[in-house]
């Protein structure tokens, strides 16, 4: 398999993994509201939501990075004209 094709497949797999993680986190955010009653439930829930929000932000950054890599991997590089001055 050609190196570029292998890299493209790896990037696609990584994007699927990132999407899956994001889905799990999103589902967990909704389940937080169902936490059993605890003496400091509001503090626990607020902390968990903040951490999940940070995880979402990090995943978004990873996704953008991977998309950028995919774009660079699939683009055909343009030839540059180089002027030489002697």
Q: What's the helix and strand layout?
A:
Layout: H1 3-32, H2 41-74
Q: Tags for this entry?
A:
2 helices; mainly alpha; 74% helix
Structure description:
The chain is an all-alpha fold and 86 residues long. It has one domain (7-73). Helix content is 74%, strand content 0%. Helix 1 runs antiparallel to helix 2 (41-74). The chain is elongated, with a radius of gyration of 21 Å.
| Low-pLDDT windows of residues | none
3D shape? elongated
List the domain count as a whole number. 1
Q: What is the overall pLDDT average?
A: 78
Order of helices and strands: HH
What is the first-to-last residue Cα distance? 44 Å
Strand content: under 5%
State the major sheet.
none
> Radius of gyration in whole Å, from Cα?
21 Å
Task: Give me the number of helical elements.
Answer: 2
What is the helix content? over 70%
Compact description:
Helices cover 74% and strands 0% of the residues. With 86 residues, it is an all-alpha fold.
């Amino acid at each position: 398999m050609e190196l570029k094709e292998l890299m493209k497949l790896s990037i696609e797999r990584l994007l699927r993994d990132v999407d899956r993680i994001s889905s799990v986190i999103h589902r967990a955010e909704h389940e937080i509201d169902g936490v059993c009653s605890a003496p400091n439930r509001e503090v626990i829930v607020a902390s968990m939501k903040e951490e999940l929000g940070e995880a979402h932000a990090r995943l978004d950054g990873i996704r953008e990075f991977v998309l950028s890599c995919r774009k660079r991997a699939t683009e055909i590089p343009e030839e540059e004209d180089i002027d030489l001055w002697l």
